[in-house]
Specification:
Largest sheet: none
Number of helices: 3
Order of helices and strands: HHH
Radius of gyration: 32 Å
Mean pLDDT: 83
Number of domains: 1
């Protein structure tokens, strides 16, 4: 019996988290109102609730646009780099294709010119 391993925790519980503690940060009153408004149908909302929800969404979008995350900045840099690489690859491929086509045309024309 001394070699048995028993589980004494709560199944599904994450390591290092206490039961009953709220690990998420507190949310603002406007955010809570927006979430409750999103659960309702549009026909059930008052004009004031719709206006408040729209204002909140506009403010969140403006904040996101004015404060880009580090990931968005990195994505922009990578997009620019890949765009430049793609343009260079396209130009090189076009040049190689033109050279190969020129060689084929020259090979076909050379016997005609020598006659």
């Amino acid at each position: 019996m001394a070699d048995e391993l028993k589980h004494v925790g709560i199944l599904g519980m994450r390591w290092g988290r206490r039961r009953g503690s709220n690990s998420s940060p507190p949310t603002s009153r406007e955010h809570k109102q927006l979430k409750s408004a999103q659960k309702k149908k549009v026909s059930q909302l008052s004009n004031e609730e719709i206006r408040a929800a729209n204002t909140r969404k506009q403010l969140e979008k403006q904040y996101k646009d004015m404060n880009p995350s580090k990931i968005a900045q990195g994505q922009k840099v990578v997009k620019n780099i890949l765009g430049a690489i793609g343009a260079a690859t396209l130009a090189a491929t076009t040049i190689i294709t033109a050279v190969e086509t020129g060689k084929k045309v020259y090979a076909q024309i050379t016997p005609l010119i020598k006659k």
